[in-house]
Amino acid sequence: MSNSDQSLIERAQKVIPGGVNSPVRAFKGVGGNPVFIARAEGPYVYSQDNRQFIDYVGSWGPMILGHTDSRILEAIGTAAATGTSFGAPTSGEIDLAEELVDALPAMDMVRLVNSGTEACMTALRLARAYTGRDAIIKFAGCYHGHGDCLLVKAGSGAATFGVPSSSGVPKGTANDTLVAPYNDLAATRALVESRGKDDVAAIILEPVAGNMGVINPAPGFLEGLRKLCDEYGIVLIVDEVMTGFRVAWGGAQRLFIITPDLSTFGKVIGGGLPLAAFGGKRKIMECLAPLGTCYQAGTLSGNPLAVAAGLASLRALKEEDRPYERLEEKGAYLEAGLRAALDSASVPGIIQRQGSMVTVFFTDQKAVTNFDEAAACDHEKFGKFFHKMLENGVALPPSGYESWFISLSHDKEILDQTIEAAKASLAAL
Ligand code: HOZ
């Protein structure tokens, strides 16, 4: 850790709990203190004391084009010059809503909000309003933001710190959150059946889990959930905050051809500014105020700067040559290099991936398919690997329960440097 990081964290800890504004950034999952970032460009981030790192955090997902993409910066600049917030509708919001509805066959209507947390929290309220039921089902290790009812067996930072169920959540709220193991259709069905016909309002899931490390849906899991929801009149909410416009144009729902009732988006659709969205079937979305009685609002909802950045991000992806094929190629190349690095260092581990989302699990297991298996991996070893990678100029997400994100700016040279860094880091473990 550099002197600069040390003095910044000491200063930060006096005025910000833990010195960070989002817990996983505190490096508690890997030990040591965080690197303070001053600037970024393309595939790189630079620390306050000007050390360069190849970045796989990518702001936790939004930076699919790489940092400081000129198309996004220009759009933000143009929007800022005409006013930063009006608290009134703008035509840009319609443009972005049309873009989303056009990309997503299951989305008739959409509402823009500020964060993935807001999107998921509101989608659940809406499902409850629509069905008149209270209970919801989520999957252990899936993270859907920090709304009260979702902080039960949550992934991401909550899992990293071993507190998957937060304090401060009222018992009544937690009681209405039922938890099933990811990829276990039979257990999910049993849970629904145990609660009777008119009890479960929604099933919410990450279609590819990214907040307990990358875990792909087992064959038939998503289709089975769709069928179960149809049978019991349950609203199926697909949380694409991480996967939306990341694993495919539109998201995992287009890759796996599933039709959610509602879905949530964030990260890529905001181009690095605070923007998220939830949307879906018209008859459900029309329950929202001012058309219906389910309330949701926000001073900065549909903020013109965030909308401009989001639109620029989606339009840039449309302009790019085969962006998702290229991201898949990059992901496959990195996966093969990491596999060879693990093998040559004789370190037991597996690499799980969907397109440009990647996780290395240090484990003897053949696959990681749910939270218990993710938790059984060697997270202490991940911490050591993380710090070696940092010493070798590569910034990974500071937790073994997270996805690494590859951007279009990670070219072959950058990927080769990453693989070399991994070889050196694994050999030194
Ligand atoms: N929950 C986010 C990762 N899955 C962390 C966001 C952040 O710290 O910026």
Question: What keyword list fits this structure?
Answer:
429 residues, 14 strands, Aspartate Aminotransferase, domain 2, Aspartate Aminotransferase, domain 1, 15 helices, binds (4S)-4,5-diaminopentanoic acid, 4-stranded mixed sheet, alpha/beta
The poorly predicted ranges are none
Largest β-sheet summary = 7 strands, mixed
Spatial order of the strands forming the largest sheet: 4-10-9-8-7-5-6
Share of helical residues: 25-40%
Write up this protein.
The protein has 429 residues and is of the alpha/beta class. The protein has two domains: 168 residues, Alpha-Beta Complex (Aspartate Aminotransferase, domain 1), CATH 3.90.1150; 250 residues, Type I PLP-dependent aspartate aminotransferase-like (Major domain) (Aspartate Aminotransferase, domain 2). Helix content is 38%, strand content 14%. The strands form three sheets. The chain has a seven-stranded mixed beta sheet with strand order 4-10-9-8-7-5-6, with helices on both faces. Helix 3 crosses helix 11, helix 12 runs parallel beside helix 15 and helix 14 crosses helix 15. The longest helix has 22 residues. The two termini are 18 Å apart. Bound molecules: (4S)-4,5-diaminopentanoic acid.
Question: Could you give a quick summary of the protein structure above?
Answer:
By secondary structure, the chain is of the alpha/beta class.
